[in-house]
Recover the amino acids of this structure.
């Protein structure tokens, strides 16, 4: 066999051998940098890449992935995923809405919407838009909106108390994410202290992570 034949056979043997010809074992793992479990040390793909499972959909179009939970709620306020622009300029697609149309409405408990299997791996910020319109809460009462992440414990990513008469509109609200477990439950919760309000609503839209 000539020199070329020997070199060709050696090259084939190196390609087949798991350890390669340099004596170093191949490092198997996910080599897709957009995947949740990307391994920058991997030298050989093992097909284990996992797509990001977080709330990348900005318009709640993934309605089937979100679950409503009343948590002992008693009152006339409704929580739903609506379509349109409501009282905040949007692109006319879906958004999350809490709305109460009854004056002197008393309520207890909370209304929440949550999504399981959310991952914020390698994400540093969560950005969204929100607005509130028409509320006039009684003295000593407020409507609290919270964004929570639950895994082994619960972390409050963002919260805001709406009191008095207000009509704020905030675009590009940005939350710096702490170090979080790989996956968990993302919850948006609406609850009250004091439990009285007149008609009004809160809208949340356009979630995105970076």
């Amino acid at each position: 066999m000539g020199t070329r034949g020997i070199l060709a056979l050696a090259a084939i043997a190196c390609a087949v051998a798991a350890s390669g010809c340099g004596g170093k074992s191949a490092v198997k793992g996910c080599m897709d940098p957009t995947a949740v479990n990307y391994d920058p040390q991997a030298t050989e793909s093992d097909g284990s890449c996992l797509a990001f499972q977080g709330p990348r959909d900005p318009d709640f179009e993934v309605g089937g992935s979100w679950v409503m939970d009343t948590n002992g709620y008693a009152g006339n306020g409704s929580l739903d995923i609506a379509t349109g622009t409501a009282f905040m300029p949007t692109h006319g697609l879906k958004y999350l809405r809490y709305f109460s149309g009854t004056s002197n409405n008393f309520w207890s408990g909370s209304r929440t919407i949550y999504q399981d299997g959310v991952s914020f791996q390698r994400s540093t910020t969560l950005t969204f838009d929100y607005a509130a319109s028409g509320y006039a809460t009684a003295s000593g009462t407020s409507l609290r909106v919270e964004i929570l992440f639950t895994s082994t414990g619960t972390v409050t990513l963002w919260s805001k108390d709406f009191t008095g008469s207000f009509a704020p509109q905030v675009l590009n609200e940005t939350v710096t994410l702490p170090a979080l477990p790989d996956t968990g439950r993302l919850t948006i919760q609406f609850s009250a202290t004091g439990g009285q309000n007149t008609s009004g609503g809160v809208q949340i839209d356009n979630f995105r992570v970076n």
About this structure: Helices lie at 3-16. The chain is about 5% helix and 45% strand. The longest strand covers residues 184-193. The CA atoms of residues 57 and 207 lie 7 Å apart.
